[in-house]
TrEMBL record:
Keyword Hydrolase attributed: no
Chief location category: mitochondrion
Pfam families attached to this UniProt entry: Arm_2 (PF04826)
PANTHER family named among the record's database cross-references: ARMADILLO REPEAT CONTAINING 10, ARMADILLO REPEAT CONTAINING PROTEIN
Annotated localization: Mitochondrion outer membrane
Classification via SUPFAM superfamilies: ARM repeat
Gene Ontology CC, one term: mitochondrial outer membrane
Record gene name: Armc10
Protein known as: ARM10 protein
Organism: Ciconia maguari
Chain ranges of the Armadillo repeat-containing domain: 1-163
Keyword vocabulary terms for this entry: Membrane, Mitochondrion, Mitochondrion outer membrane, Transmembrane, Transmembrane helix
Membrane topology according to the record: Single-pass membrane protein
Amino acid sequence: LQKLIHLLQATDDPLIQEQALITLGNSAAFSVNQDIIRNLDGLSIIGGMLSDCVPKVKEKALNALNNLSMNIKNQEEIQVYITQVCRNVESAPLNSDLQLAGLRLLTNMSVTSDYHHKMINSIPCFLHLLSEGTERTQIQVLKVLVNLSANPAMTRHLLRAQV
């Protein structure tokens, strides 16, 4: 895991970055690896890949963070990327794998109400995706919206949102 994280930092080759991110994401299926990746500063390194200009690298970084977000301590670190993830969802091509990867991460990050406030500005986007997206996109957006709607503090924001 340490070598993969160092490889991510050392290369600018998108194909190598994608493969390293896929492997890190798959490794995160085991909770012990989630802690190891966090302790190796892997979350911030993977999070840094969200600014990459190559969509496939962003998508693989989102998938890795999604798998890593199954851990409360990891969520505490990943939450700093929520605004950026929302921007990626908004700017990604409609129904793209990149958009779906961002929505999956937002679904996990919205299971508890701790970070709902960071998604308020994206509610109009979510509602737009709900009306314009394919069934896969709609299902993923509904998961985020259901999580947000479970928080009474979000009611006003959800009902006032302009689409």
